[in-house]
Amino acid sequence: MTFRIPSLIMAILERDLRLALRHGADTLGAVLFFILAGALFPLALGPSPELLRRMAPGIVWVCALLAALLPLDRLFGSELEDGSLDQLLMTGLPPSLIALAKMLAHWLTTGLPLLLAAGPLAIMLGMPTPSMPVLLIGLLLGTLILSLIGGMAASVVLGARRGGVLLPLLVLPLTTPALIFGAAALDAAQTGLSWGPDLELLGAFLAAAIPLCPLAAGAGLRAAVE
Protein backbone atom coordinates (compact mmCIF):
# COMPACT_ATOMS: atom_id res chain seq x y z
CA MET A 1 0.00 0.00 0.00
CA THR A 2 2.89 2.35 0.77
CA PHE A 3 4.10 2.15 -2.82
CA ARG A 4 0.61 2.94 -4.15
CA ILE A 5 0.22 6.17 -2.17
CA PRO A 6 2.13 8.45 -4.60
CA SER A 7 0.31 7.01 -7.62
CA LEU A 8 -3.08 7.45 -5.92
CA ILE A 9 -2.27 11.05 -5.01
CA MET A 10 -1.20 11.75 -8.59
CA ALA A 11 -4.40 10.11 -9.89
CA ILE A 12 -6.56 12.38 -7.70
CA LEU A 13 -4.54 15.41 -8.74
CA GLU A 14 -4.78 14.51 -12.43
CA ARG A 15 -8.54 13.92 -12.12
CA ASP A 16 -9.11 17.32 -10.49
CA LEU A 17 -6.99 19.08 -13.09
CA ARG A 18 -8.96 17.45 -15.92
CA LEU A 19 -12.22 18.52 -14.28
CA ALA A 20 -10.89 22.06 -13.87
CA LEU A 21 -9.93 22.23 -17.55
CA ARG A 22 -13.35 20.90 -18.53
CA HIS A 23 -15.09 23.49 -16.36
CA GLY A 24 -12.75 26.46 -16.70
CA ALA A 25 -15.32 29.01 -15.58
CA ASP A 26 -14.23 28.77 -11.92
CA THR A 27 -10.59 29.56 -12.72
CA LEU A 28 -11.49 32.28 -15.20
CA GLY A 29 -13.99 33.78 -12.77
CA ALA A 30 -11.41 33.94 -9.98
CA VAL A 31 -8.82 35.63 -12.20
CA LEU A 32 -11.33 38.11 -13.62
CA PHE A 33 -12.59 38.93 -10.12
CA PHE A 34 -8.99 39.50 -8.98
CA ILE A 35 -8.23 41.92 -11.82
CA LEU A 36 -11.58 43.72 -11.82
CA ALA A 37 -11.63 44.14 -8.03
CA GLY A 38 -8.15 45.62 -8.17
CA ALA A 39 -9.20 47.92 -11.02
CA LEU A 40 -12.02 49.37 -8.89
CA PHE A 41 -9.64 50.86 -6.32
CA PRO A 42 -8.21 53.57 -8.64
CA LEU A 43 -11.78 54.58 -9.46
CA ALA A 44 -12.66 54.88 -5.77
CA LEU A 45 -9.42 56.40 -4.47
CA GLY A 46 -8.71 58.76 -7.33
CA PRO A 47 -5.94 58.92 -9.93
CA SER A 48 -3.12 59.90 -7.56
CA PRO A 49 -0.14 57.66 -8.50
CA GLU A 50 1.51 58.12 -5.11
CA LEU A 51 -1.61 57.05 -3.21
CA LEU A 52 -2.12 53.98 -5.39
CA ARG A 53 1.55 53.01 -5.11
CA ARG A 54 1.38 53.24 -1.32
CA MET A 55 -1.81 51.17 -1.12
CA ALA A 56 -0.87 48.64 -3.82
CA PRO A 57 0.43 45.92 -1.42
CA GLY A 58 -2.81 45.79 0.54
CA ILE A 59 -4.95 45.97 -2.60
CA VAL A 60 -3.18 43.06 -4.30
CA TRP A 61 -3.28 40.85 -1.22
CA VAL A 62 -6.92 41.54 -0.32
CA CYS A 63 -8.04 40.90 -3.90
CA ALA A 64 -6.04 37.66 -4.04
CA LEU A 65 -7.55 36.47 -0.76
CA LEU A 66 -11.11 37.17 -1.88
CA ALA A 67 -10.58 35.68 -5.34
CA ALA A 68 -9.18 32.45 -3.88
CA LEU A 69 -12.40 32.02 -1.87
CA LEU A 70 -14.63 31.79 -4.94
CA PRO A 71 -14.06 28.13 -5.99
CA LEU A 72 -13.70 26.74 -2.45
CA ASP A 73 -17.32 25.75 -1.91
CA ARG A 74 -17.00 23.21 -4.74
CA LEU A 75 -13.67 21.78 -3.60
CA PHE A 76 -15.32 18.82 -1.86
CA GLY A 77 -19.01 19.61 -2.35
CA SER A 78 -19.38 18.16 -5.84
CA GLU A 79 -17.72 14.89 -4.76
CA LEU A 80 -20.05 14.61 -1.78
CA GLU A 81 -23.11 15.19 -3.97
CA ASP A 82 -22.29 12.58 -6.64
CA GLY A 83 -20.87 9.98 -4.24
CA SER A 84 -17.31 10.08 -5.58
CA LEU A 85 -16.03 11.20 -2.18
CA ASP A 86 -17.03 7.82 -0.74
CA GLN A 87 -15.16 6.11 -3.57
CA LEU A 88 -12.05 8.17 -2.89
CA LEU A 89 -12.14 7.21 0.78
CA MET A 90 -12.53 3.54 -0.18
CA THR A 91 -9.24 3.57 -2.11
CA GLY A 92 -7.40 3.09 1.18
CA LEU A 93 -5.62 6.41 0.89
CA PRO A 94 -5.65 8.33 4.20
CA PRO A 95 -8.27 11.11 4.15
CA SER A 96 -5.60 13.67 4.98
CA LEU A 97 -3.68 12.80 1.80
CA ILE A 98 -6.87 12.94 -0.26
CA ALA A 99 -7.46 16.42 1.14
CA LEU A 100 -3.84 17.41 0.46
CA ALA A 101 -4.11 16.31 -3.19
CA LYS A 102 -7.28 18.35 -3.67
CA MET A 103 -5.73 21.37 -1.95
CA LEU A 104 -2.78 21.16 -4.35
CA ALA A 105 -5.20 20.92 -7.28
CA HIS A 106 -6.98 24.04 -5.97
CA TRP A 107 -3.68 25.91 -5.89
CA LEU A 108 -2.74 24.82 -9.42
CA THR A 109 -6.12 25.88 -10.81
CA THR A 110 -6.67 29.02 -8.72
CA GLY A 111 -3.56 30.11 -6.82
CA LEU A 112 -1.15 29.77 -9.75
CA PRO A 113 -3.34 31.77 -12.19
CA LEU A 114 -3.73 34.48 -9.53
CA LEU A 115 0.05 34.53 -9.12
CA LEU A 116 0.47 35.05 -12.87
CA ALA A 117 -2.18 37.78 -12.92
CA ALA A 118 -0.63 39.65 -9.99
CA GLY A 119 2.13 41.19 -12.13
CA PRO A 120 -0.19 43.07 -14.52
CA LEU A 121 -2.36 44.25 -11.63
CA ALA A 122 0.68 45.50 -9.72
CA ILE A 123 1.93 47.38 -12.79
CA MET A 124 -1.51 48.93 -13.22
CA LEU A 125 -1.36 50.19 -9.62
CA GLY A 126 2.07 51.73 -10.21
CA MET A 127 4.10 49.32 -8.09
CA PRO A 128 7.87 49.76 -8.61
CA THR A 129 9.53 47.07 -10.72
CA PRO A 130 12.18 46.20 -8.05
CA SER A 131 9.34 45.16 -5.72
CA MET A 132 7.99 42.55 -8.15
CA PRO A 133 10.15 39.63 -6.92
CA VAL A 134 8.97 40.23 -3.35
CA LEU A 135 5.37 40.37 -4.57
CA LEU A 136 5.68 37.07 -6.44
CA ILE A 137 7.54 35.24 -3.65
CA GLY A 138 5.06 36.46 -1.07
CA LEU A 139 2.04 35.51 -3.19
CA LEU A 140 3.56 32.10 -3.92
CA LEU A 141 3.69 31.40 -0.19
CA GLY A 142 0.41 33.18 0.48
CA THR A 143 -1.67 31.41 -2.16
CA LEU A 144 -0.40 28.05 -0.91
CA ILE A 145 -1.52 29.03 2.59
CA LEU A 146 -4.91 30.13 1.23
CA SER A 147 -5.41 26.78 -0.52
CA LEU A 148 -4.46 24.81 2.60
CA ILE A 149 -6.61 26.81 5.01
CA GLY A 150 -9.42 27.10 2.49
CA GLY A 151 -9.43 23.34 1.91
CA MET A 152 -9.51 22.72 5.63
CA ALA A 153 -12.44 25.11 6.09
CA ALA A 154 -14.28 23.61 3.09
CA SER A 155 -14.07 20.15 4.64
CA VAL A 156 -15.30 21.44 8.02
CA VAL A 157 -18.47 22.96 6.52
CA LEU A 158 -18.98 20.05 4.10
CA GLY A 159 -22.59 18.94 4.21
CA ALA A 160 -23.60 21.77 6.53
CA ARG A 161 -26.66 23.86 5.77
CA ARG A 162 -25.61 27.20 4.24
CA GLY A 163 -22.00 26.05 4.21
CA GLY A 164 -21.19 28.62 1.53
CA VAL A 165 -22.02 31.37 4.02
CA LEU A 166 -19.94 29.81 6.80
CA LEU A 167 -16.90 29.26 4.61
CA PRO A 168 -15.69 32.89 4.37
CA LEU A 169 -16.35 33.37 8.08
CA LEU A 170 -13.90 30.55 8.80
CA VAL A 171 -11.28 31.34 6.17
CA LEU A 172 -10.91 35.11 6.50
CA PRO A 173 -9.83 35.23 10.19
CA LEU A 174 -7.43 32.30 9.75
CA THR A 175 -5.72 33.85 6.73
CA THR A 176 -5.31 37.29 8.33
CA PRO A 177 -1.69 36.60 9.44
CA ALA A 178 -0.73 35.70 5.86
CA LEU A 179 -2.33 38.93 4.65
CA ILE A 180 -0.46 40.98 7.27
CA PHE A 181 2.97 39.43 6.64
CA GLY A 182 2.64 39.41 2.85
CA ALA A 183 1.50 43.02 2.57
CA ALA A 184 4.10 44.13 5.14
CA ALA A 185 6.93 42.49 3.17
CA LEU A 186 5.81 44.20 -0.02
CA ASP A 187 5.43 47.55 1.71
CA ALA A 188 8.92 47.20 3.21
CA ALA A 189 10.35 46.43 -0.25
CA GLN A 190 8.75 49.58 -1.65
CA THR A 191 10.13 51.79 1.12
CA GLY A 192 13.63 50.29 1.08
CA LEU A 193 13.34 48.50 4.43
CA SER A 194 14.21 44.87 5.17
CA TRP A 195 11.47 42.57 3.84
CA GLY A 196 13.14 39.26 4.74
CA PRO A 197 11.66 38.81 8.26
CA ASP A 198 8.10 39.17 6.97
CA LEU A 199 8.62 36.54 4.28
CA GLU A 200 10.27 34.26 6.84
CA LEU A 201 7.20 34.55 9.06
CA LEU A 202 5.03 33.81 6.03
CA GLY A 203 7.16 30.74 5.31
CA ALA A 204 6.85 29.60 8.93
CA PHE A 205 3.07 29.94 8.65
CA LEU A 206 3.13 27.77 5.53
CA ALA A 207 5.36 25.19 7.22
CA ALA A 208 2.83 24.89 10.04
CA ALA A 209 -0.14 24.73 7.67
CA ILE A 210 1.26 21.93 5.47
CA PRO A 211 0.93 19.16 8.09
CA LEU A 212 -1.93 20.58 10.17
CA CYS A 213 -4.48 21.62 7.53
CA PRO A 214 -4.64 18.26 5.69
CA LEU A 215 -5.04 16.41 9.01
CA ALA A 216 -7.94 18.65 10.02
CA ALA A 217 -9.44 18.41 6.53
CA GLY A 218 -9.18 14.61 6.60
CA ALA A 219 -11.13 14.54 9.86
CA GLY A 220 -13.76 16.76 8.28
CA LEU A 221 -14.09 14.42 5.28
CA ARG A 222 -14.56 11.40 7.52
CA ALA A 223 -17.23 13.22 9.55
CA ALA A 224 -19.04 14.31 6.37
CA VAL A 225 -19.40 10.79 4.93
CA GLU A 226 -20.35 9.24 8.25
UniProtKB/TrEMBL annotation:
Q: Does the keyword Cell membrane apply?
A: yes
Question: How is this protein named in the record?
Answer: Heme exporter protein B
Name its cellular compartments: Cell inner membrane
Q: Mainly resides where?
A: membrane
Highest taxon above the source species: Bacteria
Per the UniProt record, one Pfam family is: CcmB
Which family, according to the similarity comment? Belongs to the CcmB/CycW/HelB family.
Query: Its membrane topology, per UniProt?
Result: Multi-pass membrane protein
Keyword hit for Ligase? no
Biological process annotations from GO: cytochrome c biosynthetic process; cytochrome complex assembly
Q: Which GO terms describe its cellular component?
A: plasma membrane
Key words of the record: Cell inner membrane, Cell membrane, Cytochrome c-type biogenesis, Membrane, Transmembrane, Transmembrane helix, Transport
Q: What is the lineage of its organism?
A: Bacteria, Pseudomonadati, Pseudomonadota, Alphaproteobacteria, Acetobacterales
- PANTHER family cross-referenced by the UniProt entry: CYTOCHROME C BIOGENESIS B-RELATED, HEME EXPORTER PROTEIN B
Question: Which source organism?
Answer: Komagataeibacter rhaeticus
Q: What GO molecular function annotation could you give as one example from this UniProt entry? A: heme transmembrane transporter activity
